């Protein structure tokens, strides 16, 4: 038993407990944010040290440490750090439970890190629930009408999704007799075409798995929670939801790649399902986002659309042969750049709505004069969400679409690029309001140092990924390689 | 290690833009001077390139001043720049206009910091398009242009500026979305993003997944929105009319040329067979462009809108020249792009002066201005005569080459009829140009324009530079055609003509 492999999660857990305990004694709650940040950095350090060429398993093959898992762990840690940086002002307004807030952020990070590392059905479920429950509480943290509604909706739909997922897992287990992904894969690969077709339960199990995971990534038709939760949750937590979606994709990649990549006719089947879901998701998300007047709700629909773009990568993976990693690596790169861009946008929104106390797009009028740097940052992130160069969003789309074209999904790419054009309309509407609208008042919009640091980091990342994406693409490729079975 | 001319030329404007945008405490005067410096140096570099360009016959089709660095190994993308005979005139045109529009904008008072920063960024993106030899880099620069244009039109424009700006963005993004699909198809057919390699090897040796005709038309549609080709032209009158003067100049002068350049560089060079097969259709479209554009132009009553519609007609000649697929006609098409850039650039600049000084742009209310603004009237007439193709102006040289080249082209059947039809466009052009000049500058002197100023010193300077360029190319077109020929001749080899 090699516990040092588990060091990143252990450290983070320890820091979460420290934060809760210290909360009882200290008055300056800002210190808790610093401690949480230290925890994230230390955990990240351990993760970097573990990066290597080998795959190591622990806890009887329930968890693995490979580059794929570490890529996601670092991504989640980075996102959590930016979220905590941008929460400091926001949380200081809470009367109670500041310590719990930070601790829950750390705990949900552990859950997501486990999601990226699991290779076994039961531990997948555990990791999902650890993440989910932390998030249900965080979403309801404001305890006002909208926040409560969002939390309840999230909880109920999440519970249904978990039930569906469990049922799917039970069916897969029933037909294969294994819970280890590797073992299940071996059973499936030995089955003939007629063997699989003769057991509709297995197919049903796969479909139920897709449905359960689909909820996590806000894929159509399991997307209904996204707009409400995005609107109602405390804004830093809304920003944090992008990590949860990324974790959902991590699990989907792991499960579908290691379980159902072979035989090829099977991967074509689910590849097609993802392609159709992608097409519907991005069209629906983008079209419904147009009439929105609340910026958080608008970004909620935009996340549905982006889940659609990401599923283009999943479809590519289904259509490609097992040795071809373009689908996965482009998906990983897209996740990284989308997370960074979305975070940047939300950090700017947090700063602005701290002052305005409103998320209405119309109230952003004249923000270019009242807070030029915040508006510039938000503009850059929105441009990246449209997918225009020289930003991360452009490179990510180019990379993921190029994979899809290579595997004969030109029709899907055409739908996707036309969707990008549609999305330009509502993203640029916000830009227009900020730079062309008349300021409602002449008052400047202040922002704290922590927020400014977080926003500059995000914007810098967005630009760097857009201009010199090669190093991160290389990392994504290395991470994607780990997935090849055998 | 030689000096990287192209990198310096492309990125100097954006460096200036960053400086202007982020250096605190710059006065308006300093901002304008900085902008002028950061756009003049690229012009000087472009002229230097033009002088050093190897014009010997052995240089036909050779990429000069090449720079190549690995950029994104994962998708085989390179930072690959270079110019040849087709792109060099475009580079020269862009840097020239890039410098002149700064002078044209000298009287901008509204938010000058942002204005000049966007204008400089715009120049970088257009230069990048003309110099990129890597498809991804090309597309990246192609897309960057949208953002400055959106802001420039919607903040500093006039009339329905926000409507026009978003219309421009949506059309452009639609075009580039389709183009992106085409580029991706091309990439996966060949496995390369290098325009040079793809053009050299051709598509015949690859297993073709997507029909080449489909890829051709995906790319063509992208470029057709920009040129613009009927029926994708409806963004152009709105954007030109509502944009501020300087942006109309860049838009008509340099941005439209990206479409024509792309057609030669990608559509014809990579798909010679498809181009040959569909040339009759595209040439017919060109004739529609010429005649339909000219017919609408004659009906316009707004000064800027009139010039905008005349651009559609003139871009029809470019399309005709390209898809007549003759050696001379293609040289003519490239020359026409350059010539239209300076002539229409000057028309827009002078129209802007008329509007600024007289405060009126409705042709029905203008008149007799030659008395108040003699210099402007003369310059406007020269530009107008250039636009209708009078000898000794560049317009004549370019259109003459296009018509002669098209008429004598042996590749496209029925080209004679199309060419003759297109020549009719020149007749209509004479009509609308002369009528416009008459309505603005001649006729009875109007009371209300008493005291209207003529051009000041700075304005005379930039008008002189424009006129000099028009005359120089008109009298001695070989200065450009010698260069253009070098770029066209390898394409003719591919076409087998």
Percent helix range of chain B: over 70%
Name the largest protein-protein interface in this structure.
A-B, 35 and 34 residues
The profile of the biggest β sheet of chain B is: 2 strands, antiparallel
Envelope shape of chain B: globular
Helix content of chain A: over 70%
Précis, in short:
The complex is a heterodimer of chains A (486) and B (497). With 486 residues, chain A is an all-alpha fold. Chain A has helices spanning 7-25, 30-50, 67-91, 98-117, 121-139, 145-176, 181-190, 193-197, 200-216, 225-232, 235-260, 264-289, 295-319, 326-356, 367-370, 372-386, 392-406, 410-436, 449-467, 470-481; strands at 56-58, 63-65.
Labels describing this entry:
heterodimer; A: 486 residues; two-stranded antiparallel ribbon; 20 helices; 77% helix; globular; B: 497 residues
Question: In words, what does this structure look like?
Answer:
The complex is a heterodimer of chains A (about 475) and B (about 500). Chain A is about 75% helix and about 0% strand. Chain A is mainly alpha-helical and about 475 residues long. Chain A has a two-stranded antiparallel ribbon with strand order 1-2. In chain A, β1 and β2 form a beta hairpin. In chain A, α14 packs antiparallel against α17 (about 390-405) and α14 (about 325-355) runs antiparallel to α19 (about 450-465). Chain A starts with 6 loop residues before the first helix and ends in a 5-residue tail after the last helix. The model of chain A has no long low-confidence stretch (mean pLDDT about 85). Chain B has about 500 residues and is mostly helical. Chain B has a domain at about 270-495. Chain B has helices at about 5-20, 30-50, 85-105, 110-130, 135-145, 145-155, 160-190, 195-200, 210-225, 235-240, 245-270, 270-300, 305-325, 325-360, 370, 375-385, 395-410, 415-440, 455-475, 480-495; strands at about 65-70, 75-85. In chain B, α3 (about 85-105) runs antiparallel to α11 (about 245-270) and α4 (about 110-130) packs parallel to α11 (about 245-270). The mean pLDDT of chain B is about 90. The chains are: A mainly alpha (about 475), B mainly alpha (about 500).
